[in-house]
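@here heads up, posting the sequence + SMILES for the pyridoxal-5'-phosphate run so it's all in one place. Ping me if the SMILES looks off, I pulled it from an old spreadsheet.
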Amino acid sequence: MEHRDNRSLPDSKGYFGEYGGSFVPPQLQPVLDEITAAYLKIKDDPSFNRELSDLYKHYVGRPSPVFRAERFSAAAGGADIYFKREDLNHTGAHKINHCLGEALLAKRMGKRKLIAETGAGQHGVALATAAALLGLECDIYMGEADIKKEHPNVSRMRVLGARVVPVAAGLGALKEAVDAAFEAYLKDPVNQLYAIGSVVGPHPFPMMVRDFQAVVGREAKEQFAASPGGLPDALVACVGGGSNALGLFTAFLSDDVAMYGVEPSGTGFGSGQHAATLTKGRPGVIHGFKCYLLQEEDGSPSKVYSAASGLDYPGVGPEHSYLKDTGRVSYVCASDAEAIDAFFALSRLEGIIPAIESAHAAAYAVKLAKELGKGKKILVNLSGRGDKDVDFVIGKYGAAYGL
Ligand SMILES: *Cc1c(COP(=O)(O)O)cnc(C)c1O
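bot reply: prediction finished. Complex structure tokens:
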């Protein structure tokens, strides 16, 4: 099988095929153009890359290990399942990889302040961490409903010195927070840099966040090179916006390796309670870019749901939309129930409590292991740790697992 990598994408306007681009108010376009120009300049600058690699190594704790999960694999009954342990990064997930990149870029551009939206607070905490480390101010826009729900992350951001700005509009959730953060950004693009939380948004964010996350796959490729065969047979990662998945996939796109992006089917398609954008959506525009979108008749984004708050976004990265159409990556689903099963299996068979987001990938790996059979190797991106989820899981699902 011949595959091509996506290094030449996006094009100069930010398109991956028909997806991506920049659908923003005219006054925002010059601001984005300035970020693109600054990023393209520093991206091959040895001193920038040295500084970022040093932080990855000495601050984040990279490279993250690849762990062969023997008991989890045996229970699945087929291929060997390996985990790329992004949960062991400082702050407990992959998001710190691109937050440090964006913060370092802001500093090089002479910005004083980072701003961003956050839903469950994971991106906010990772960005507040990077801001503290690099001596930048940090404003995190968060819906009022989310602030009530995600108390520990709100406290963490405040302790780290970030300002959490409540957003009262609409449902008081992620979508309104994005709108408010963009509005604030437009008021002062000179001193602030918007640091987006995934491979979404207008150009250049999907490209930039992908490039910063690609360290995950580059490391994994090196870590597998020593093993017989030298490559895994399949990669599996969960897809919310799609940053941890592209982080793992990018280095392997031109190799003969199968790839699976796992979306949340929630409580099932019949219930309407899901966030399986690539599986059930159709092309549309959200937050300044074109992608597969779960939308109503009139094109407005649908209300979405997943037990994993990091996966419940009605859009998805434009590069994933492109990779779906080309067929290079297969997009599949895991339900809440399957993810919670994998959450307990990984906890009790390996002593690793995964984020519910990552548990979606682990759940699909169990099915795939049976399909591929013995002797094959599956590498799963364990995007984050599940400390944030334990109370929720016990409260909602504990009884079925003897708790
Ligand atoms: C935010 C988050 C995700 C989803 O974001 P992607 O951009 O799709 O990677 C997945 N896992 C964890 C642990 C997260 O915090």
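MO: Residues 201 and 288 are 6 Å apart (CA to CA).
MO: One more: The chain has two domains: 15-56+95-210, 63-92+214-401.
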